């Protein structure tokens, strides 16, 4: 790897290509062929490598693919990381899997009569192959019909999802760019990841906090004495990042493991990270962390072991909050004994944590699973308040961090120019004003089923009223809502409401199977792109050269939307008449221009592209020494936070004014709708639906990695030995997991790495109904969202509550049908 500073770059360009046999690209349309000639790029740029190594990238890393006779045979990390990532090996599987969608397909009843397309047959109907041109014409015709009947309020293009990395082939942005130019659309606000936290944090600390640079990993290594990993599993979740993963987070945790710091993991599951670090495992009942934190804070208050100066100078509202802690406002003293009864951790332990945190330089690193829960806003608010009492926010290695486990949030930022990317189009240049209007009916993403089912209904959201529109046309590109959304059976009903559903997909995912029109999309290895590594570090600019020919009839999302744009007369605006390579050159040139101001010498685009190597940038000492909130701590008057008071708000007067019953004005313990401590439990076990270590959500489920975790060809469910014994369940048994919302089959994994009373079934298992198309069918593969609740966290954030919910579990004695979701559906 070449560290791009000054002259080294030119040397780096000389190292190079182990290239080989080349053939011209196929599948580009005429304009792009002409354009690539015009742009004057050399053979490497215009031809595929048939034998050799090519650099590319994905959410899971910067990768080097080995190609033989025009086929990818293996892929490995292209960077030098100390911790390996099993996801790196998946490129060949992803290209050649039999789950690929080969050609444009239309659901039979839809093709027969698009005006009355029998939406109840989605997921059950046969598929009919149509030509690419027919598919484009059909989508265009029906979209125009919907615009005419329902206006832009009838068209949904929120299309949430993790798609593939790459700054041009960004399916969701391409979709919305097209829709904005074609006539407008209803979109969404927020996301599934941090739905609660990103809405409450601006009231508390003045920024969304969850996607921001953390006190750097080096500062933690140098200064923290106690590191608490609170509801996070970074050794699993740092295998992926939003752009290309530079792997620095996993490397950091390896160093942390070797350090002599006190490491604690607070999680109902003894997760991968806890095991890897050999950390102390403290296991609260799911959804009870707020009670645990209140118990710790009450102890600190009572023993007078908290930082009064910090509270005084940097926060506001502690007086009201302390009244609550002491029970003066509600008659309930939040002492360690009270907390212990709720969270299941001994009072003694709670008290010892209070002391440990206060006496040592302590970093509280929190994951997001615990805010993906009923009243999830409270969890991080309570955590920040605890960090305020400890008083180390803004000190090296102290305070709290909400993104150490995600996209390498503690990776220091390099001095790097930033590569451009495709955007929604220029709204200010007239003629596209609907892009602005398109947003007025946006609703919080996780309310999608509610929105589809209840047009005209108004909900409260973050101090505003939002009214759902009557959605009749859905276009999804780059996400898997049939798998990612909570309460699949309610979602299936909602999914029957629109007249038309178009899905751009690479694979026959559950979502593609439940669409009307499916467009076959290329993997990111079948197109040219560019990206950067490091969501926070900007560590590399990475060329993503096409590895292999487009498979079957697969096309790029870009081409689909170019052709739809033609049908709507907005092609010039949409494409700016640029070819793929011209876009990439333009994005790269944005970085090139910036690089001058940074006194960096970058190669021109052609040289960069031909070099087939990531450009790496240097990390300056001041980035290594970054301490979040240091400037605020230094001078809260000169550097106020973006909150109402400029201080950390432990009590929010704005939230008080909203008068939401489910989101009071200071961190509060509120019982979740379903939890282990409730009276009259509707089911016996708490269900946790963590992010899977060997997938990215539902992505990679169709690779050979599945063999490493599937049990009885199903998603594994973790269950404690005590519970397993009581139910007569052994590892390897097929179990039925059910509640009032649905039933799934899963493969039992009996382990003491989970707290008794709790089971874990990871999100992302492909929904595989025993009776396709039937609402309420058993899922043969164990998709956890069949069991989760589709309710908002509160009226403040309306986030999803995927980690809240109870289930029953028993050995399955019925007949077993083979898994079918990895075989293309009938007609395909
Ligand atoms: N129970 C439960 N549910 C959860 C969660 C949980 O913790 N528990 N977590 C939630 C969270 S945080 C998230 S982020 C969501 C994730 O939900 P999603 O982001 O929807 O999940 P993915 O499996 O990444 O889906 C991405 C899809 O895009 C497709 N794709 C990839 N590249 C391209 C491309 O270039 N073009 C097109 N057209 N398609 C492409 C992939 O094949 C895949 O089907 O799930 C949420 N759901
Ligand atoms: N390998 C891999 N990496 C990923 C992803 C993936 O799918 N696979 N997804 C990416 C995305 S989009 C996101 S949003 C992030 C997700 O990152 P997170 O949201 O942090 O991940 P989760 O697995 O949902 O939850 C983390 C931990 O919280 C624990 N937990 C659940 N409920 C509770 C609780 O009530 N209290 C406590 N203390 N702990 C609890 C779980 O057991 C789990 O170990 O990861 C990203 N990275
Ligand atoms: Mo996420």
From TrEMBL:
GO terms for molecular function: electron transfer activity; molybdenum ion binding; molybdopterin cofactor binding; oxidoreductase activity. Its EC number is 1.8.4.-, 1.8.99.-. Its cofactor is Mo-bis(molybdopterin guanine dinucleotide). Coiled coil: none annotated. InterPro entries: Asp_de-COase-like_dom_sf (IPR009010), BisC (IPR006658), CT_DMSOR/BSOR/TMAOR (IPR041954), Molybdopterin_N (IPR041460), MoPterin_dinucl-bd_dom (IPR006657), Mopterin_OxRdtase (IPR006656), Mopterin_OxRdtase_prok_CS (IPR006655), Prok_Mopterin_Oxidored (IPR050612). One of its GO terms (biological process) is anaerobic respiration. Mo-bis(molybdopterin guanine dinucleotide) binds at residues 162, 372, 480, 484, 527, 557, 785. One of its GO terms (cellular component) is outer membrane-bounded periplasmic space. Residues 100-566 form the Molybdopterin oxidoreductase domain. SUPFAM superfamilies: ADC-like, Formate dehydrogenase/DMSO reductase, domains 1-3. Residues 685-800 form the Molybdopterin dinucleotide-binding domain. Binds 1 molybdenum-bis(molybdopterin guanine dinucleotide) (Mo-bis-MGD) cofactor per subunit. Residues 56-96 form the Molybdopterin oxidoreductase N-terminal domain. It is an enzyme of class 1 (oxidoreductase). Keywords: Metal-binding, Molybdenum, Oxidoreductase, Periplasm. PANTHER family: TRIMETHYLAMINE-N-OXIDE REDUCTASE, TRIMETHYLAMINE-N-OXIDE REDUCTASE 2. Belongs to the prokaryotic molybdopterin-containing oxidoreductase family. This is Biotin sulfoxide reductase. It comes from Helicobacter cinaedi CCUG 18818 = ATCC BAA-847. The gene is bisC.
């Amino acid at each position: 790897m070449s560290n791009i500073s000054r002259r080294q770059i030119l040397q780096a360009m000389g190292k190079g290509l182990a290239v080989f046999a080349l053939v011209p690209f196929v599948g580009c349309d005429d304009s792009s062929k002409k354009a690539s000639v015009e742009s004057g790029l050399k053979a490497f740029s215009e031809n595929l490598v048939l034998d050799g190594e090519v650099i590319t990238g994905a959410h899971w890393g910067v990768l080097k693919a080995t190609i033989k006779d025009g086929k990818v045979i293996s892929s490995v990390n292209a960077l030098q990381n100390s911790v390996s990532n099993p996801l790196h090996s998946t490129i060949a599987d992803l290209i050649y899997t039999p789950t690929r969608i080969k050609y444009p397909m239309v659901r039979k009843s839809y093709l027969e009569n698009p005006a009355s397309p029998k939406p109840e047959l989605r997921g059950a109907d046969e598929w009919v192959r149509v030509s690419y041109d027919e598919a484009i014409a059909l989508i265009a015709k029906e979209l125009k019909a919907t615009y005419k009947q329902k206006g832009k309020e009838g068209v949904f293009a929120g299309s949430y999802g993790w798609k593939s990395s790459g700054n041009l082939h960004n399916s969701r942005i391409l979709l919305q760019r097209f829709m904005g130019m074609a006539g407008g659309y209803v979109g969404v606000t927020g996301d599934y990841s941090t739905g609660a936290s990103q809405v409450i944090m601006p009231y508390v600390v003045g920024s969304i906090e969850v996607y921001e640079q953390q006190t750097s990993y080096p500062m933690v290594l140098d200064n923290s004495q106690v590191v608490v990993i609170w509801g996070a599993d970074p050794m699993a979740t740092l295998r992926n990042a939003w752009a290309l993963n530079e792997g620095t987070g996993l490397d950091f945790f390896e160093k942390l493991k070797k350090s002599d710091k006190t490491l604690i993991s607070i999680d109902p599951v003894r997760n991968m990270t806890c095991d890897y670090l050999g950390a102390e495992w403290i296991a609260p009942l799911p959804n009870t962390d707020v009670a645990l934190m209140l118990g710790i804070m009450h102890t600190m208050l009572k023993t007078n072991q908290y930082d009064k100066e910090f509270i005084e100078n940097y926060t506001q509202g502690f007086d009201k909050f302390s009244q609550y802690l002491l029970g003066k406002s509600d008659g309930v003293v939040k002492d360690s004994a009270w907390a212990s009864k709720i969270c299941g951790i001994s009072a003694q332990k709670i008290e010892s944590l209070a002391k440990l945190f206060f006496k040592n330089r302590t970093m509280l690193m929190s994951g997001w699973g615990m805010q993906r829960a009923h009243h999830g806003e409270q969890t991080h608010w309570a955590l920040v308040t605890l960090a305020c009492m400890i008083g180390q926010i803004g000190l090296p290695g102290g305070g709290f961090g909400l993104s150490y486990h995600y996209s390498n949030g503690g990776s220091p930022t390099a001095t790097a120019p930033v590569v451009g990317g495709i955007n929604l189009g220029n709204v200010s240049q007239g003629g596209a004003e609907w892009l602005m209007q398109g947003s007025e009916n946006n609703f919080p993403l996780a309310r999608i089923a509610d929105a589809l089912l209840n047009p005209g209904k108004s909900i409260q959201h973050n101090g505003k009223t939002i009214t759902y529109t009557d959605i009749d046309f859905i276009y999804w590109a780059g996400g898997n809502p049939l798998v990612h959304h909570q309460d699949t059976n309610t979602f299936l009903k909602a999914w029957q409401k629109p007249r038309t559903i178009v899905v751009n997909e690479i694979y026959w995912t559950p979502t593609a199977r439940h669409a009307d029109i499916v467009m076959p999309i290329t993997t990111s290895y079948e197109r040219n792109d560019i990206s950067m590594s490091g969501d926070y570090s900007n560590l590399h600019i990475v060329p993503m050269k096409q590895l292999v020919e487009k498979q079957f009839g697969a096309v790029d999302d870009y081409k689909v939307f170019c052709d739809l744009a033609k049908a709507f007369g907005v092609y010039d605006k949409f494409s700016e008449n640029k070819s793929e390579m011209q876009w990439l050159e333009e994005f790269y040139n944005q970085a090139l221009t910036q690089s001058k101001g940074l006194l960096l010498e970058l190669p021109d685009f052609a040289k960069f592209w031909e070099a087939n190597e990531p450009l790496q940038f240097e990390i300056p000492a001041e980035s290594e020494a970054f301490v979040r909130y240091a400037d605020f701590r230094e001078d809260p008057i000169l550097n106020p936070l973006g909150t109402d008071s400029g201080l950390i708000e432990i009590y929010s007067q704005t939230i008080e004014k909203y008068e939401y019953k489910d989101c009071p004005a200071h961190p509060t313990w509120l019982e979740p709708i379903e939890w282990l401590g409730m009276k009259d439990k509707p089911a016996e076990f708490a269900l946790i639906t963590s992010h899977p270590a060997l997938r990215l959500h539902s992505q990679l489920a169709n690779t050979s990695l599945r063999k490493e975790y599937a049990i009885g060809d199903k998603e594994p469910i973790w269950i404690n030995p005590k519970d397993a014994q009581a139910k007569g369940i052994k590892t390897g048994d097929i179990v039925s997991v059910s509640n009032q919302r649905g039933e799934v089959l899963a493969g039992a994994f009996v382990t003491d790495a989970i707290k008794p009373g709790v089971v874990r079934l990871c999100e992302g298992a492909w929904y595989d109904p025993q009776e396709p198309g039937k609402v309420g069918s058993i899922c043969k593969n164990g998709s956890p969202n069949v069991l989760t609740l589709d309710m908002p966290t509160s009226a403040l954030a309306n986030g999803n509550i995927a980690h809240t919910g109870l289930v029953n579990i028993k050995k399955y004695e019925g007949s077993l049908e083979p898994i079918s979701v990895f075989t293309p559906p009938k007609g395909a």
